[in-house]
Amino acid sequence: MIKPLTAAIGSILLFSAIPAGAHAQDSASAGASAAAQDAGTQGTKKKDDKVVDLNRIIVTGTRTPKAVDEIPGAITVISKEEIQHTLLVTEDATAVLARSVPGYAESSQAMSNTGETLRGRIPLRLFDGIPQGSPLREGTRNGTFTDMGIIGRVEVINGPSASEGIGAAGGIINYISKVPTKDGAETTFTTRYQTQGHGGSEGWKTGLTFAAKQDAYDVLLSASYIDRGISYDGNGRRIGMNTSGSLADSTSKNLFLKGGFNFGAANEQRLQATYSHFKIAGKGNYIQILGCRGPDDDPPCAVPRTNTSEKGHIFGSKDAFNDFEQYSLAYSNADFFGGALEINVYKADQAMRYLPENSSDKQDPLIAPLGTLFDQSEIDSHKKGIRTSWTRSDLFDVSGLELHTGIDFGRDRAQQQLALTKRLWVPPMNYKSTAPYAQLSWDVGPVTLSGGIRREDDKLTVNSYTTTYYRNRVFVEGGGVKYTKNLKNFGAIWRIGSEWSLFGSYSEGFTLPNIGIPLRNINVPGQSVSRIRDLDAIIFKNSEAGFNWRGEHGAFGATHYISKSPFGASLAIDPNTSDFILTRAPVRIEGTELTGEWRFSDAWKATGLYSRIRGKTSFWSADPAGRYGAGGLTKPMGVLDINPDKFAAAVTWNFLPNADATLGFTTLFDRHISGSDTRAFDNRTFSYDEQTHGYTLFDLGVNYDMARYGKLSLGVENLFDKQYILSWSQLAGYQNYWAGRGRMTSLTYTITF
């Protein structure tokens, strides 16, 4: 550990002469204003303040604390209060994002986060700065990694971020754990009961959090347990078990420990250690019974019916689970060579197991007759790394000129197997990354200018392996792929008076194309890892412009963005296996987002957001033999990549000094997209047509504070018990015809002592 740490500090000093920068701008002042309280001494809000000065709201997701009004781009800060309101309604970890972030897709309501993109791209999720998930084999299980009850706020930086490097294609979602803010010790006990009013739908939660702060020391200890029943749709019918893992009929266990102390002459240094272990696992009480989409399905049916669940267990199968365990050690020094130094060393392990399937790509006649073999996919991922930064204000004695620089080291290892038969599905993949970066920002009166660069110097290594029976048992020669790229970004924000601001920015992002999918799908002999073009990195180029207005009673913001990648990636469904396949071709995404808040009085407040996203890609990629190039941008990107238009709003009424109620709704609109193209090389015609039907869901949350006797809260998800089909489930795929949850009523009791 000494050698990388020395290299990190040395590189920070070396890069102090390089200009840089990449940031973003608030577009959801409702969340940002509440975040001031969470930020402790960094941002403050008096109880009688009606409007918060956004210059004092501090955002840390940009790798250095930065006032929102100095960040050119779209940022959403989800406060502790907004998180708590969502938790009254549902324990889904990503539901708060679907309700609060304009460009975030609908919640999958499952253990996986399939289809949950941010502005049509996969975002980088961080937990206190530690990357979650793995771009080597994206198993869509990185959205549920802790109990949301320990999260103090969520910072969402929309659009690709060069400052973060690998994985930040759609933006950054940084979950920040709570911090003790009061001197002394306090313990919070939470219990929750929920039901849909049908047999077996009952669930409960119990959690305990201990926080202590004294002099230079602080500690946070939290443990929780959740037991969930089976889910029902609006028609009172059991919902089928999700093949990627269900929240229904599952248990969750979470343990979180964080402790730190400040030291030095003026307590300018801090050392902090964190441990987190979260596991969600199916109870195995139900099996899925497949539905039917109608007369055109195979086999056909006269009346469509969604997947459902019945009591039972597939012999020999194991329970699905998602298991996260991570450690981190952070050191900071506010006076290191005239600047602020931060070093975060982390180690994170994740294991994922999926439900048993007898799909064609899991068959092997050497094990069992074709069509009879059930198997379960299992992904193993291990990460470790060092993230560093050094920030110097008033550089060269120039007022407002700030340098932010550092270097990141990362190691990522992942593989996928078929767990019941111990067959290798995706070979072990090893990824090493070294990425120095630097960024510079300059406040010149009402204008902030920023610009920067990050260099990715990475390598992927894969050993030789043999594919499965379905892919013809071909031998693939191992090898390495080198990735080097300089990622640029720049932006500006102009604050006009005390109410208006305009911003514009350009940023580049870098990620890998879910490496495991093209590796496991090879079916032609003579392939070598080092010559597979589908393993090339994806580079995103994002241009964005917008404005914000903040007045005495409210705020409004709008942004428009265009995101391009010359050799991008989009998801499609294999017509033979109904499983996901990766399409590598040019991609262009364009979108508009609106956010707003209005306070009618001290008792009434309304918030709203709107998002519209459209994307195009090519029906075919360039021929490896050079006979033809990639097609034009004529294929519309569907619901697996891009969410339908979304409108959400909420009204909060403080009807008593110690009681409030929030009524909210989210609408996903109908969408019909289609396109076609003909390839001149062979006159082959391609076409795509997709129709999704929208829906509107209401939810209600009511809080009653009983002072020293605790707080009692009522939450109702899908208030009017609407029957609907999840948008991404409306596209025919492998066993994916699921309805959404019907009405769920929850009662939560919390007491702090």
Count of distinct strands = 38
Gross morphology is globular
Q: Helices and strands: which structural class?
A: mainly beta
Oligomer: single chain
Instruction: Give the DSSP E fraction (strand runs of 2 or more residues).
Output: over 45%
User: How would you state the average pLDDT, rounded?
Assistant: 87
Helicity range of the residues? under 10%
Q: What kind of sheet is the major sheet?
A: 22 strands, antiparallel, barrel
Low-confidence stretches: 1-55
What do you see in this structure?
The structure is a single chain. The longest helix is centred in the N-terminal third of the chain and has 13 residues, at 2-14. A hairpin with a 2-residue loop joins strand 16 (321-336) and strand 17 (339-353). This protein is globular. The two termini are 41 Å apart. 49% of the residues are buried. With 753 residues, it is mainly β. It has a 22-stranded antiparallel β-barrel. It has a 6-stranded mixed sheet with strand order 1-4-7-8-5-6.
Keyword list:
753 residues; 50% strand; mainly beta; six-stranded mixed sheet; single chain
Layout of secondary structure:
Blueprint: H1 2-14, E1 25-28, H2 29-38, E2 58-59, E3 66-67, E4 74-78, H3 80-89, H4 95-100, E5 124-127, E6 130-131, E7 151-158, E8 171-177, E9 184-195, E10 203-214, E11 217-227, E12 250-263, E13 269-282, E14 286-289, E15 308-311, E16 321-336, E17 339-353, E18 377-392, E19 401-418, E20 423-444, E21 447-462, E22 465-466, E23 475-477, E24 479-496, E25 500-511, H5 516-520, E26 527-528, E27 538-550, E28 554-573, E29 580-599, E30 604-617, E31 635-636, E32 646-656, E33 659-668, E34 671-679, E35 684-692, E36 695-705, E37 711-717, E38 744-752
Parallel strand pairs: 1-4, 5-8, 23-26
Antiparallel strand pairs: 2-3, 4-7, 5-6, 7-8, 9-10, 9-38, 10-11, 11-12, 12-13, 13-16, 14-15, 16-17, 17-18, 18-19, 19-20, 20-21, 21-24, 22-23, 24-25, 25-27, 27-28, 28-29, 29-30, 30-31, 30-32, 32-33, 33-36, 34-35, 36-37, 37-38
